[in-house]
Every structure is written in structure tokens, then in C-alpha cells.
């Protein structure tokens, strides 16, 4: 068993996962999530996560991207235009400040082909499989979960990591009526 493991969620887990408003606006309904254990927080772990992100981004035909990250919670998110630019920024920060990025737009030409977002479950707890982790969620116009799972396994093999579990959710989120009402009220 490897020290570094991930869990994979394809789609939306009922009553846990809700549509990402930014992805909805971009007409990117399909979700694929990689759950990283938060017990790992070194630069090496961040580089593993970025390699996973870069591999998944290339799998959707990404030619350019804008990554937004917030190195200081009181300052607005800063954009960079490549994984390499984000990696360079990480390497200049003290290790305690090396957080994952917040979100990214992935483009092919001028079209957004995917939207990526980090979910910081470590800050709020959460239900399994997300409890005390941070999660890379990637939203696309087509269901590409088979391709993404292959890419995740490939990256894990290269880093000596392991895909600990794969959970298949719903293609579209199913939000119960009372939850929709509460979301509307807020």
C-alpha cells in the first residue's frame, strides 16, 4: 500500500455534491473529482497534485489556461497562465502557505473546454469520501470519466501512488426539493 493515495468520484454523489455555479454558466455539466488526502501537505504533494491536474487538462485538449490562486486569504485571487507559473509561485512561498489553487479555466483556442475547482473539505470536515481532504473537481461538456480514470492511474503509477477507491455518482446532480428551497432562500 502506498503512502500517497487518492480517491476518485465520477459524477455527483446524491445529497453531497451540488452543481458548481461557474461550471453551470459555462455549460459544463459533467463532473469528475480527485480526492487528495490532506494529511499530505509538502511541496512534493502539491507537485503530485499539479501533475494530476496537468495530465487531466491535457486530456481535454487544453491549449491554454488561467489558474486563480489566493496565497493570502485577505487578498484577491491572483491569476497565472500555466501550471509552470503556478509551480514557480508555490516554490517561492513558505511551505505552510503552499495551498492548492482555487479554480482554473481550461481553453482550446478561445473556447472553455473545462473548468477546474479545488474544494477545501479539510476546512469544514464533510462526509466520506471528502472528509478532511481537498478535492480537484473538473467539469466538462461530455462524460469522460473512463479517460480520466486511466489518466489518474497513469499519474499514480509514475509517482508511486495508488487509486484507493472509485465511486460512481449520478451524471447529473439530484437535489431534493427541500435542499433546492434552502438554496433558493439563501
Which key terms come to mind for this protein?
8 strands, alpha+beta, 186 residues
Explain this structure to me?
This protein is 30% helix and 28% strand. It has 186 residues and is of the alpha+beta class. It has one domain. An eight-stranded mixed β-sheet has the order 4-3-5-6-7-2-1-8, covered by helices on one side. α2 (43-59) packs antiparallel against α3 (83-92) and α2 packs antiparallel against α4 (145-159). The longest helix has 17 residues, at 43-59. The protein is globular. The N and C termini lie far apart (44 Å).
Short description:
The chain is built from five helices and eight strands; from the N terminus they run E-H-E-H-E-E-H-E-E-E-H-E-H. It is an alpha+beta fold and 186 residues long. The protein has one domain.
Structural topology:
Blueprint: E1 5-10, H1 21-25, E2 30-37, H2 43-59, E3 64-69, E4 78-80, H3 83-92, E5 103-108, E6 111-119, E7 133-140, H4 145-159, E8 162-168, H5 177-185
Helix pairs in contact: 2-3, 2-4
Give Rg in angstroms: 16 Å
How do the strands line up in the largest sheet? Answer: 4-3-5-6-7-2-1-8
Largest sheet: 8 strands, mixed
Helix tally? 5
Task: State the separation between the terminal residues, measured CA to CA.
Answer: 44 Å
